[in-house]
Structure formats: C-alpha cells, structure tokens
Amino acid sequence: MLTASRSGGTHLNYSWGRLDANSGQFRFRVVHLASWLGRWQTLEEQAARNPFAAIVMAQLQAQATSQSGPQRLVSKTRIIQLLYQYRYSKQDVLALFRIIDWMMALPAELEPAFEQAIITIEQEHKMAFVTSIERLGEKRGWEKGRNEGQITLLQRLLTRKFGPLPESVQQRIQTATPAQIETWSLNVLDAQTLEEVFAS
Prior knowledge:
By secondary structure, the chain is mainly alpha-helical. The chain folds into two domains: 33-129; 139-197. 60% of the residues lie in helices and 7% in strands. It contains nine helices and two strands, in the order ββααααααααα. It has helices at residues 40-47, 51-64, 69-85, 90-103, 111-125, 132-162, 167-174, 178-187, 194-197, and strands at 11-17, 23-29. It has a two-stranded antiparallel ribbon with strand order 1-2. α2 runs antiparallel to α3. The longest helix is centred in the C-terminal third of the chain and has 31 residues, at 132-162. The chain is flat. It starts with 10 loop residues before the first strand and ends with a helix. The mean pLDDT is 82.
C-alpha cells in the first residue's frame, strides 16, 4: 500500500540473486491510496461498515491539509462526525478517535475550536463518547508527565555538576514553568556556578 503516489503500476517486483546462481522474485500487488481521493463518496459509504475506510479517509485528509490548519480542522471534524453518524460502538469510536486525533494533529490555536465541535457533535447525537473533559484530561496527563521528566532531568544535571542541591533550589525548580525549566537546562551547559544557571 503506497500512501503518497496517486497512480502507477499495479504491481511491484522484487528480485534477488544472479541469473547463473540461486535467484528468486516476488511480485506484489500495489494499492495507490491517494487514488481514493477521487472516490470520496465511496469511501464514506464503505466507512459505515468498515472502520478501516475511516482510517484511509483520515490519512488522505492528513496529507491533503498538511499546509492548512483551518482546512484540517474542517476535515477532521467531518470524519469524527461520521463516526457518530454510523453508530459505531463507544469502544470503536474511542479507538478510531485516538488514531485520527494523532494522524490529523491540529495547531494548538485550533484545538479549542475542535473541542467545541466535539461537544456539539455529541449533543446532536446524544452520545457522549469522547467528551472534551476526557480528551483534555488525557492531554494534560501527558503534559504533566513530560514536565515532571524535564524537572527530574534538570535536577540530575545540576546535581552531577554542582553536587547536592539546597532545599531552596529544589523548591524553585518544582514551582517553575516549563519555559523556565527549558532555559535553566540550557544554562547548565555554560554555567560555572549554580547561581549562573538561574541568572536568566
């Protein structure tokens, strides 16, 4: 399956060996995924019974909207709306949503609009499968884990270079913003004293 090419041969051949020795050949059938862009109505109809068709739709739209956040927002919302329209089970909707959400990631400034669109879709279909609270909770949980990892790394770097950290320094690090943690981590490279790390 080729995800970018729109057309080409129907098969690929793979050969190995030499003519005067052991050799062999495989012949693979090729599916050009992008060719389905011209059969979008068929894809939507197939997605009603085949969840994989919804994934194909997301892949095609992810490529088509790679340079336009607003267009991706519209396409992503439409595909999610279809999942509810097709009456997939909650388990299927959640599984597909996570994949599509990853494949069609939006710019941060468009996330609130998508969150609101999800709320509207769920209200229209009276099916609260993917609530904004649940999605934000997962996102914040991931961000919290990432921030804690950055704090731990900074503490290890400082301890390795300057020795055990004073309690006041540890408290300062724990209450710092992600931007501050990043700045201080970079400062460790050139700082000669602990004070220089926090100079800016």
